[in-house]
Amino acid sequence: SYKISKRIEKRLYQKARLVIPVTRHSEKIIQETCPQARTYVVYNGVDTLHFKPVEDPLSRIPEPMDEKKFKVGYVGTIGVIHDLDTVIKAAKILEDDPDIVFYLIGEGSRSAHLKRLLDQYQPKNVRWLGIKPHSEIPLYLSALDLGLNPVYQTRVFESIITVKFFEYLSCKIPVITMARGLLKKVGDASKAAVTIPPENPEMLADSIRSLKNDPEKRKIMAANGRPFVERYFDRKKWATVLSDVLMDQLDMPGDRPNNKEEDIQILKQNVPDW
């Protein structure tokens, strides 16, 4: 039951030597459950060496993707937080524009639900390509004109930043995020995303049309994305911070980076609420 799960959760927080939340908002939720929990925020991020723009991606992708179409895509897990209901409904609204096509790439626990949505709405402009090797994901991202980052509307989801958001930005893809809370705050700060309220297919369809018709805005957004994640959400930098924190907890000697404090200040500069 829910009450039993919450008791187990609180007990684990009490017993843990250290809890690593990936955002400050998540830390606040943990501390509401267990005020005495010992926490240290280490943000998630993206492998910027792997996720980077690929030249001429359409020539290297096995599936045909029309270069002349405006390609809108969702690339990631088909999971419980990812609001593909809104994406499919928006695609149906946009069927009247033959120049727009949606690509869905991924599988997950909600794949059967996605199949039911596609069977129900039968949008003519949606292509579900299934799961792809991790090594090929930058190819598919680079082929898109616009990425989608859809999240259902719940309080818990307001405390997260989806990893796919960083991957889009690292590949210089402008993004529409459908979320509140932290994702909106980070998206606004990045200047690489347009954020709209979740679960609103009409607004999503309007936003896609607007960005399709504004290539200059998309160009500016795309240029802003990668420098933003390189500065604040580079996974290698945060892995260094995590390693140092764990060695401190375990009282382990080792080579510590001389610029640890400087790195932490740079990573957290101007983002006190993340």
Q: Can you give me a brief rundown of this structure?
A:
The protein is of the alpha/beta class.
Summarize the structure in words.
It is globular and about 60 Å long. The protein has helices at residues 2-15, 24-33, 84-93, 111-121, 137-142, 163-170, 182-190, 201-212, 215-232, 235-249, 260-268, and strands spanning 70-75, 100-105, 126-130, 146-150, 175-178, 193-196. Strands 3-2-1-4-5-6 form a six-stranded parallel sheet, with helices on both faces. The chain has eleven helices and six strands. With 274 residues, it is an alpha/beta fold. β5, α7 and β6 form a beta-alpha-beta unit.
Based on DSSP secondary structure assignment, what is the total number of beta strands? 6
The portion of residues forming beta strands comes to 5-15%
End-to-end C-alpha gap: 31 Å
- H/E series, N to C? HHEHEHEHEHEHEHHHH
Radius of gyration: 20 Å
Structural class: alpha/beta
Biggest sheet strand line-up: 3-2-1-4-5-6
Shape: globular
Mean pLDDT: 90
Q: Helical residue percent?
A: 40-55%
Show unreliable segments: none
Q: How large is the count of helical segments?
A: 11
Largest sheet data: 6 strands, parallel
Can you tag this structure with a few keywords?
274 residues; 11 helices; alpha/beta; six-stranded parallel β-sheet
Architecture blueprint of SSEs:
Blueprint: H1 2-15, H2 24-33, E1 70-75, H3 84-93, E2 100-105, H4 111-121, E3 126-130, H5 137-142, E4 146-150, H6 163-170, E5 175-178, H7 182-190, E6 193-196, H8 201-212, H9 215-232, H10 235-249, H11 260-268
Parallel strand pairs: 1-2, 1-4, 2-3, 4-5, 5-6
Helix pairs in contact: 3-4, 3-8, 6-9, 10-11
